[in-house]
Amino acid sequence: MTDARVTVLTRVNCSACERAEADVARICDDLGVGWSAVDVDGDPELRAEFGDRIPVVMVDGAEHTTWKVDEAALRAALG
Fold it and tell me: Which of the chain's ends, N or C, has fewer CB atoms near its CB within 10 Å?
């Protein structure tokens, strides 16, 4: 595994976040790409910026998708 290239912005008790994390984990594991999850409620700046627009998938620090994982687009971005 490489260092995390993908970050899922998430929060506790968010079913969409859980699905996004599972999708990202599966895709990143398949591609050998590192990933992490960050709870936006633990960071006031992230909570202010992303608020209710989560989950958000970030690739290399840039916003990639919001609300759900687009598998084809994520694989292309990481390929």
Answer: C
The answer to whether position 74 is within a domain reads no
The total of other beta-carbon atoms located within 10 Å of residue 73's CB is: 13
Provide the phi-psi class of 51: left if phi over 0, else alpha when psi is between -120 and 50, else beta: left
Distance CA 44, CA 1 (A): 30
Q: Classify residue 11: in a domain, yes or no.
A: yes
Q: Which of 58, 63, 62, 71 is nearest to 19 (CA)?
A: 71
Query: What CATH number is associated with residue 36?
Result: 3.40.30.10
pLDDT digits (tens, 9 = 90+) for 6-47: 999 999 999 999 999 999 999 999 999 999 999 999 999 999
